[in-house]
Amino acid sequence: MTLEIILFILFALIGAASGVLMITRKNPVMSALFLILNFAALAGVYLLLNAQFIAVVQIIVYAGAIMVLFLFVIMLLRPDAEISILRTNPLLKYVAIGVGVLVFAQLIYLIFFFKPLNITPSDVAERIQIGTVENIGTEIYTKYIIPVQVAGFLLLSATIGALVLAKKKFE
Amino acid sequence: MDLWTIIIISIIKILFVVTITLLTVSYLVYFERKISAWVQDRIGPNRVGWYGLLQPFADVFKLFLKEDIVPDASIKSIHTLAPIITLFVAFSTYAVLPWGPPVNIFGYEIPLVLADVNSGILIVLALTSLGVYGITFSGWASGSKYSLLGGVRSSAQMISYEISMGFSVAGVLLISESLRPAAIIESQSGWMWNAFIQPIGFITFLVSAFAETNRLPFDLPEAEPELVGGYHTEYSSMKFAAFFLAEYANMIISSGLIVTLYLGGWQVPYIETFGLSSGWVTMMQIGAFFFKVGAVLFFFIWVRWSIPRFKYNQLMNLGWKVMFPLALVNLVWVAILVMLLN
Amino acid sequence: MIPVEYYLVLSAFMFTTGVIGVLIRRNAIVLFMSIELMLNSANLTFVTFASFLGDSAGQVFIFFVMTVAAAEAAVGLAIMIALFRNKQTLNADEVNVLKW
Hints:
The structure holds three protein chains of three kinds.
Chain A: H1 3-24, H2 28-48, H3 52-77, H4 85-88, H5 91-113, H6 124-131, H7 133-142, H8 145-166
Helix pairs in contact in A: 1-2, 2-3
Chain B: H1 3-39, H2 55-65, H3 76-92, E1 103-105, E2 108-110, H4 120-141, H5 145-176, H6 181-186, H7 194-197, H8 199-212, H9 224-227, H10 237-262, H11 278-304, H12 312-341
Antiparallel strand pairs in B: 1-2
Helix pairs in contact in B: 1-10, 1-11, 2-10, 3-4, 3-10, 4-5, 5-8, 5-12, 8-10, 8-12, 10-11
Chain C: H1 4-24, H2 28-53, H3 57-87
Helix pairs in contact in C: 1-2, 2-3
């Protein structure tokens, strides 16, 4: 049991448990809280994978910006407490569990019995090197410059779209 | 250096930082009250101890003895969690700010920072962006409309000003070419302080820092005339004290960040040319850091007692229509500067 | 060194949680959050392979996933606000007409 394994188990448990709690809470604010916890745990897992920049960006973008937006809208609208669909439509429970098991089984099958790539673990120094800000920045602004421009355009159109949609009147 | 030495040195540094912070926070409250008294031509606290110097301890003791009231309409777990988040975020940010140059003690080279991380500035931004949750959750979990309004206001305000804050920091990073606080300080040697190179960025960062710490003129989340106490209306006893401490701890961290990013950190311009011994130079540099932080803190308090609160639409207009474009202008200016100098 | 399968199983579990969340919840905002959970599990797979193959393409990809997630959140939440203004509900089942 190295420290790495212990930390991984800790983060993985928090991540998995908070995901399950997220979809089972009735109150949307509680759901948002557990999703934030999930993102934080994921940031920890990224650190274990030596992706330091991604870990920090995960916190800044997901936990710090996107989830604040979600919380803001939930608090602004304050929807009524949700009536559980499982009570009005109990059949759906079995459908959901069935689909869930099916998807999980597929993924597990892919992971354990279907290995086209022969993964030889890269050494730690190389892992740390690819996760640095400098390396990712160089990659983004040289090799992936056109996708970055397209992504910027997507953000611009999303901003305009959000403004048009959320505005009160269209005159 | 073996593992145990590193651990012991780290523990000593952590204790040092926590003690200094707690002391500064409590005396910051005292100075805030004294300075506000001078601004308003009063005397201020002068009963407990010599010139009221023991007043902070009396305040904490008073809060400690109060009953901890949790309203019936609140959601208990989150009501308790919110001050913890706020305090955690406020104090953990100190880990990455260097307060002096590396020193040599017993042959060990010890950097005067808890964690000298590669992406230190990003970590500060990440933690401050988490700070909004403490306020938002406390507002929501209290089950009172005043608190909820405070929480909603704070989430909108934080998100708006974080953007101009991020763009101002980007200007600094363009010059330093590194995210490490130590490297950012080194890039401002002599009088090459970022406050002089990019004055617009300095101003936008300063204003954003005021908004992020919820200080007047941006304390809309706790605007007393209309929201009673805003997000902490329903808090009492030590939970209220936690919010109170966190506000002042955030002020200190913002001042530390402003000093690190824009005012040259612990550097004293041209101190190497005075021919002092290295021990004196280090002492003066550490002193310079604390002096600069103190000056910025005084500025924070001075502004609070001189400028009235904005209206909410003015706050949003200022954030999106003035500060954000100015931060962009600053970024372009710095980019041109870097292009010309290289 | 933790084997690559551990990370992938965690990712698969989170993805499944997201799928079930979309199926059993009817609050439109929670549906959105379940989708975010699925996006994040995909991100975890990206980072895992980027790390284990020593290729930074996977980490760069996350930025595009985040861009899409941010754009989706902005537009989606704007739609929620417009929806709530017209129908006073966020229940996805009650939004069953194309025009009103």
